[in-house]
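Need residues for this backbone.
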């Protein structure tokens, strides 16, 4: 669980899958049903915003209470991985159809193979569109404070041979004003019944900018990210992270702090983008329009 909380394992789909695999591994190592039930509930609290974690653990809980629970847990965990691969592929197929030839796309955080079991969600769409010859450039937000865009998305795109340019988060508005962005693609950690989307902090800013500049703003996510029981974005719990993520940086090189020692910090991991700013929700089942969401598609 420490790896999940510390974001060594991150990305809504991968968080849920990793937690499921951990339970299966603990079961194979001889943990009792009661011990596994406690571990399951502890894992549930690790990342409160990512609903994929809750959905996967609900399925693992059903397996846990089967008579022969050890093989049931292993089977269910492996099934979840296989399903996620298929979901990602379906999202890529549905989303790439929206990408026009020569598109210059902007993406935020990391939503590729490092965040899922498959090709990814938003980044999977971009990769598929590149394979189809329709991407001329990808603007990669560095994604402060933990730089998932700069560290992970840039690396993935480079490995895939997708042309990209890394930017700071604050450069997006300037690019949009200059007409350098044709569409914005992001993932999601939770989608409420009314279509509001919780995603990495900074997503809402991009949605506002895209709306102002008349640029399509798409959310790509599997059905496991839907939360029909959550009425709207106000009901989504937003995880608060450590101040040290904002006041400095740490790594194999050591730790560097640039803010004053007594600096007060506000560091939410996610923000909520209202449904009114979203052009389309690209799921494994296809593209959902704002009209469909307004008519209760996700409820």
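Answer:
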């Amino acid at each position: 669980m420490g790896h999940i909380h510390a974001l060594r394992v991150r990305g809504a789909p991968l968080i849920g899958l990793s937690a499921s695999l951990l339970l299966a591994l603990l079961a194979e190592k001889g943990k009792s049903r009661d011990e596994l039930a406690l571990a399951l509930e502890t894992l549930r609290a690790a990342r409160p915003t990512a609903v994929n974690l809750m959905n996967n653990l609900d399925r693992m809980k059903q397996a846990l209470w089967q008579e022969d629970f050890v093989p049931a847990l292993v089977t269910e965990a492996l099934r979840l991985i296989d399903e996620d691969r298929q979901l990602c592929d379906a999202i890529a197929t549905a989303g790439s159809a929206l990408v026009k030839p020569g598109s210059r796309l902007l993406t935020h955080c990391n939503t590729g193979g490092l965040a899922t079991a498959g090709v990814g969600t938003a980044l999977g769409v971009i990769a598929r569109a590149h394979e189809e010859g329709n991407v001329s450039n990808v603007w990669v937000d560095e994604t402060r404070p933990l730089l998932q865009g700069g560290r992970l998305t840039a690396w993935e795109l480079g490995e895939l041979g997708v042309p990209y340019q890394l930017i700071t988060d604050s450069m997006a508005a300037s690019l949009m004003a200059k007409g350098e962005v044709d569409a914005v693609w992001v993932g999601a950690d939770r989608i409420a019944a009314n279509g509001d989307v919780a995603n990495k902090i900074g997503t809402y800013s991009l949605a506002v900018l895209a709306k102002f500049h008349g640029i399509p703003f798409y959310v790509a996510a599997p059905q496991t990210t839907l939360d029909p029981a959550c009425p709207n974005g106000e009901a989504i719990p937003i995880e608060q992270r450590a101040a040290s993520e904002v006041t400095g940086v740490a790594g194999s090189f050591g730790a560097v702090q640039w803010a004053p020692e007594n600096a007060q910090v506000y560091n939410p991991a996610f923000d909520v983008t209202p449904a009114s700013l979203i052009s389309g929700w690209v799921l494994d089942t296809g593209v959902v329009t704002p009209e469909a969401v307004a008519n209760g598609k996700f409820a």
